[in-house]
Design brief:
about 500 residues, 15 helices, eleven-stranded mixed beta sheet, six-stranded mixed beta sheet, alpha/beta
Length: about 500
C-alpha cells in the first residue's frame, strides 16, 4: 500500500470541497501511516480524526503524545506545531480519508447492504450461508459478514459494538477482506449509519429493505418516525439492485424510492412478488415453504424457529438471485444455518417447559415472535422476561408492554442496557402498560434472577420467552459495558436444575 502524505490528504479534501482551513507547519511531505479516531490506537505517523459531540481536547493531546502527525477536525484546538486540516463536516470527510488510506481496489468487493426495523442480522446470516455454500462448491472464500452480533472479515472475527461500524473501521475491514481473498460482504446498515454517513461512498451491488415500524425515536436517535424512515430510504441512493419486501405496509413508498436503483427485485408472500413465498408451514419449530420465481419453483426449509423468518429467507433468496446463484445453494444454506441468540430454543426433559432466547426488542419483532409462539404452541402458556434500554428508543416501553401483556400469562421485567437510567424506573414505566392489559408482572432488576424466577414459577406447559439481549454478554450500565452471562447460558442452567428436581 502507498503511504500518502499530509499534502495528499489536504488535496483530497480540497477536491471534495470539504476544507475550511489548515496549517501544516511545513510538514506537507510527512507520510501518513495510520488512521483512527480513537486516541489509544494512535501511533507514530497517524492521522487522527476528531469526531463526536462529546469529543475533548485531551483526546487529541493523547493521540499526539502517541505519535499522531496530523489531525482532521471541525475545530482548531490550538496545538502549536501540530499540523491540522479543518473540514466543513467531519463525518462527510471520514469516508474520503478511509477510502484513500485503505486503497480498496475498484470492484474488488461486492457489497450487500441490509436495512429494516427487524430481521437484519438473521438475513445477513442467511445470505452468508447461501453464498458460503456457493463458494465452497466453486472454490471461493467464505464471505465477510458485518452484523450486530459479530464482525468477520477474513482476518478478524470478533463481537460487534454497534450495528454498523464507523467508516474508518468499515474500510479497514474491507482491506482485510480483500487481503484474505474475499470477494463478497454482507452487512447490516442501520438508520444511524445512513443518517450520519458511515456508509457514504460505498456502492452496494444489492440493497435489501426488509420492513419498517416506529423505533429508535428519542432525542439521541431520530426525532420522529419520518426522520427514521427517511434515513433508511437513503440506502437506495447507493444501490445497484434494490430488493424490496412487498409484505411491508409501506412497500409503495419504499418502491418509489427504490426506483433510484438500476434494478428492483420484490420478494414476499404477496401475490405478484418476483420472489414469491407460498405454502408456508410451521410445526414444532420446523419451517417449510415454497418459492416461485422466473427461474424456479422449489421447496425450502429453515433450520431456525419462527415462521416470520420466511421473510428474511425470501430476502436472502432475492439477493442470491440478483447474483445468479443456483437454487441448490440457496436450499442448502437456509436448511443448515442458525444464529446464536435468534430463536434459540431449549426444553426440559419432560417437554413441559420450553424457553426461547431471542434478540426481539421492538414492537414489530415482539408482535411477530408472540404470534409465532401462539401458533406453534397453542396448548402452552406464555411468560416473558425482557426490559428496555435507557435513554433511547423510548417508544418501545409502551409497545413492548402492551404486546407482552396481550399474549402472556405473566411478565418479568428486568435490565436491558439501562445506561443512564435506573432499571427500576424503566421497569415501572413498562409495567404500567403491561398492567393496563390485566396481565400480572414483576420488576426484578437482576436479569439472571428474573430468568430463574420465570422458570421456577412456570406451571404446566409453558413457553418462556427471554427477549432483547440474544447472545450478548454485557449490559450498558451508566457509561460502561459490564460483563454478564448470556441469556442462553442462564436458561440452560435453569433447565438442568428443573430436570433434576423433576
Amino acid at each position: 500500500m502507498i503511504n500518502y502524505t499530509i499534502e495528499d490528504y489536504l488535496n483530497l479534501l480540497k477536491k471534495a470541497d470539504q476544507t475550511a482551513g489548515c496549517r501544516l507547519y511545513g510538514r506537507e511531505k510527512t507520510p501518513v501511516t495510520g488512521l483512527t479516531y480513537e486516541s489509544q490506537k494512535a501511533e507514530p505517523g497517524t492521522l487522527f480524526v476528531c469526531k463526536g459531540a462529546l469529543f475533548k481536547r485531551e483526546y487529541l493531546e493523547d493521540a499526539v503524545s502517541r505519535g499522531a502527525v496530523l489531525y482532521v477536525s471541525e475545530t482548531d484546538y490550538g496545538l502549536e506545531g501540530v499540523p491540522f486540516i479543518l473540514v466543513k463536516n467531519v463525518r462527510e470527510a471520514m469516508p474520503l480519508l478511509a477510502e484513500m488510506f485503505y486503497q480498496i481496489p475498484k470492484d474488488a468487493l461486492h457489497c450487500i447492504g441490509i436495512t429494516g426495523t427487524k430481521g437484519k442480522t438473521t438475513t445477513a446470516y442467511y445470505i452468508k450461508a447461501i453464498f458460503d455454500e456457493y463458494m465452497k462448491r466453486t472454490g471461493g472464500h467464505p464471505i465477510a459478514c458485518f452484523t450486530s452480533v459479530e464482525l468477520f472479515d477474513g482476518r478478524e472475527r470478533r463481537p460487534s459494538r454497534i450495528t454498523t461500524p464507523e467508516s474508518l473501521e468499515l474500510y479497514r475491514h474491507f482491506r482485510n477482506a480483500c487481503d484474505s481473498g474475499i470477494t463478497h460482504v454482507a452487512m447490516e446498515v442501520s438508520s444511524q449509519a445512513l443518517k450520519y454517513g458511515r456508509v457514504r461512498g460505498i456502492s452496494f451491488d444489492a440493497g435489501v429493505f426488509l420492513n419498517i415500524s416506529e423505533d429508535h425515536i428519542s432525542p439521541v436517535e431520530h426525532k420522529d418516525f419520518q426522520d427514521y424512515f427517511q434515513s433508511k430510504l437513503l440506502l437506495f441512493r447507493q444501490v445497484k439492485t434494490a430488493c424490496v419486501n412487498l409484505d411491508s405496509p409501506f412497500s409503495r413508498t419504499i418502491l418509489q424510492h427504490a426506483a433510484a436503483a438500476e434494478k428492483i427485485i420484490t420478494f414476499g408472500t404477496t401475490a405478484g412478488a418476483d420472489i414469491y413465498g407460498y405454502d408456508l408451514r410451521a410445526d414444532q419449530g420446523k419451517v417449510q415453504f415454497r418459492v416461485r420465481c422466473s427461474a424456479f419453483d422449489k421447496p425450502f426449509s429453515l433450520a431456525m424457529h419462527g415462521i416470520f423468518n420466511v421473510e428474511n429467507a425470501l430476502a436472502a433468496i432475492a439477493v442470491a438471485c440478483s447474483f445468479g446463484l443456483p437454487p441448490e445453494d440457496m436450499q442448502a444454506g437456509l436448511a443448515r444455518v442458525t444464529v446464536n441468540g435468534r430463536m434459540e430454543e431449549f426444553q426440559s426433559r419432560d417437554g413441559n417447559l420450553r424457553a426461547i432466547v431471542d434478540f426481539a426488542h421492538n414492537g414489530l419483532s415482539f408482535e411477530k415472535i408472540f404470534e409465532t409462539v401462539k401458533q406453534e404452541y397453542p396448548d402452552y402458556r406464555i411468560a416473558a422476561v425482557f426490559g428496555c434500554p435507557g435513554g433511547k428508543a423510548l417508544n418501545r416501553r409502551k409497545d413492548l408492554g402492551l404486546t407482552a401483556g396481550k399474549y402472556c400469562g405473566r411478565v418479568y421485567l428486568s435490565a436491558d442496557d439501562p445506561g443512564p437510567e435506573q432499571v427500576e424506573d424503566i421497569c415501572r414505566e413498562i409495567g404500567s402498560y403491561v398492567a393496563s392489559t390485566g396481565c400480572p408482572y414483576e420488576c426484578i432488576p437482576d436479569r439472571e434472577e428474573a430468568i430463574r424466577k420465570a422458570v421456577a414459577q412456570a406451571e404446566g406447559k409453558t413457553v418462556i420467552l427471554v427477549l432483547g439481549k440474544g447472545s450478548e454478554t454485557s449490559q450498558k450500565i451508566g457509561h460502561r459495558d459490564v460483563a454478564y452471562r448470556s441469556d442462553s447460558e442462564i436458561v440452560k442452567e435453569c433447565l438442568r436444575q428443573y430436570d433434576l428436581l423433576a
